[in-house]
Write a structure and sequence with these properties.
The protein has 8 helices and 23 strands. By secondary structure, the chain is an alpha+beta fold. The protein has 3 domains: 110 residues, no CATH class; 199 residues, Formyl transferase, N-terminal domain (Rossmann fold); 77 residues, Methionyl-tRNA Fmet Formyltransferase, Chain A, domain 2 (Roll), CATH 3.10.25. Strands 12-9-8-13-14-16-17 form a 7-stranded mixed sheet. The protein is elongated and about 65 Å long.
């Protein structure tokens, strides 16, 4: 088949039998989803898009759960057979509501397929036009990678408004804004993305990296190919705002980056690509952040440079991580062992920071060190504090702190 031709054909994709149980409509949808999952979504190198909207005059609407990247289809035929001693049933689609519990519904679905260029971006003209949304330092390598690649053209950078920073509350632009200014890219800084005017935006791709606000469906619907996101975990693990910190807090041995197609539900979109790395036993948030930011930028370019291939997340395997606050950094050696506090310090520095009795703990070890002060912890474990900052004081070594202070009574 020539990739430049529109493919149209009728394909009887499968027959499935399900028991009819109340409510009938979800049971029918379950059968249709099962049929769609068994269908090969690529023919002669071209992907197709399926939107199954009508079954014998019963309109279900374009439910997200029914949309499978790859197939665009109109239902042409649906044959129903009721068994269990009742014989064949015929009539309009509405008659399925009269079936009794325990009856079997047999569907044979015939679809008409047409290609959808949203999932065949290798056949689209370059450069691909991008609206980029990002705020934190994690997003900067992705922005710079896209800006330096001639296959992409960044039409607009959307980032958070300038915020007051530090004790003097100096109004400071986001790292993404500063990078966009260096690249001479147009910038928008809406206080609330939900009210941002989008009528003039027609990007090919929406790229979101550590932006900081949940996007409404009106924004997700803007791109002609897809909205994509770079997330710093191996989804479905650690959906949410603090995946890197939680991978260290929990003592994980591996983590990675996921590029996903965005849906309205938080970090629940189909996976487009992933790359994993090992977590060093002494890994800190900052070192892990810098590694994953570079890996994410490279993976983003690699993913967007070829047709998008999706893999649905298994929601039953999902774990979640919320936004961190200062109370997450309160450590108590009497109730926590040394390894737990050491992971806290490595994961939560610089934000929200870890404190013991109002002293900010900057660096620790679970091995003896000549510049450290030793602190007994739960289960007869010992924590060695290498760097500490007293209230209203300057950072100092643990050894220097120990000459004039007592940390744990």
């Amino acid at each position: 088949m020539n990739g430049n031709h529109v493919f149209a054909a009728e394909i009887a994709i499968a027959t499935v039998e399900i028991p009819l149980i109340a409510p009938r409509k979800p049971a029918l949808l379950t059968a249709i989803r099962a049929l769609g999952r068994r269908r090969n979504l690529e023919l002669d190198g071209i992907q197709y898009w399926r939107k199954l909207v009508i079954v014998n005059k019963i309109v279900f609407g374009n439910l997200e759960g029914l949309e499978t990247p790859g197939i665009s289809a109109e239902l042409l035929h649906a044959k129903r057979v009721s068994e269990k001693g009742r014989g064949r049933v015929s009539g309009s689609g509405a008659n399925h509501r009269k079936y009794s519990h325990g009856q079997i519904l047999s569907l044979t679905l015939t679809l008409s397929l047409t290609p959808d260029n949203r999932y065949n971006n290798d056949r689209m003209p370059t450069p691909l036009h991008i609206v980029f949304l990002g705020t934190s330092p994690f997003a900067v390598p992705s922005l710079k990678a896209l800006a330096s690649d001639p296959r992409f053209s960044i039409n607009l950078v959307i980032t958070q408004p300038d915020r007051p920073v530090g004790r003097k509350q100096i109004l400071t632009p986001s790292p993404v804004k500063m990078a966009a200014q260096e690249l001479k890219l147009p910038i928008a800084q809406p206080e609330n993305i939900k009210t941002f005017p989008t009528l003039t935006l027609t990007p090919t791709l929406l790229v979101v990296v550590s932006y900081g606000q949940l996007l409404p469906q009106s924004i997700l619907d803007l791109p002609t190919i897809a909205p994509v996101n770079v997330h710093a975990s191996l989804l479905p693990k650690y959906r949410g705002a603090s995946p890197m910190q939680h991978s260290i807090l929990n003592g994980d041995e591996t983590t990675g980056v996921t590029v996903q197609r965005m849906v309205k539900a938080l970090d629940a979109g189909p996976i487009l690509s992933q790359e994993s790395i090992a977590i060093d036993p002494k890994e800190t948030f900052q070192t892990l952040h810098d590694k994953l930011a570079i890996i994410g930028a490279d993976l983003l370019l690699e993913t967007l440079s070829k047709p998008l291939k999706e893999s649905v997340q298994n929601d039953s395997d999902a774990t979640f991580c919320r936004k961190l606050n200062r109370t997450d950094g309160i450590a108590n050696p009497k109730t926590m062992d040394a390894a737990t506090i050491d992971r806290m310090v490595r994961a939560l520095t610089p934000w929200p920071g870890v404190a013991i009795q109002n002293n900010k703990i900057l660096k620790t070890s679970i091995e003896p060190h000549p510049d450290a002060i030793s602190i007994p912890c739960r289960d007869a474990s010992m924590l060695y504090i290498l760097s500490i900052q007293p209230p209203s004081g300057k950072p100092m070594t643990g050894r220097a702190f120990g000459t004039g202070h007592t940390l744990v009574s």
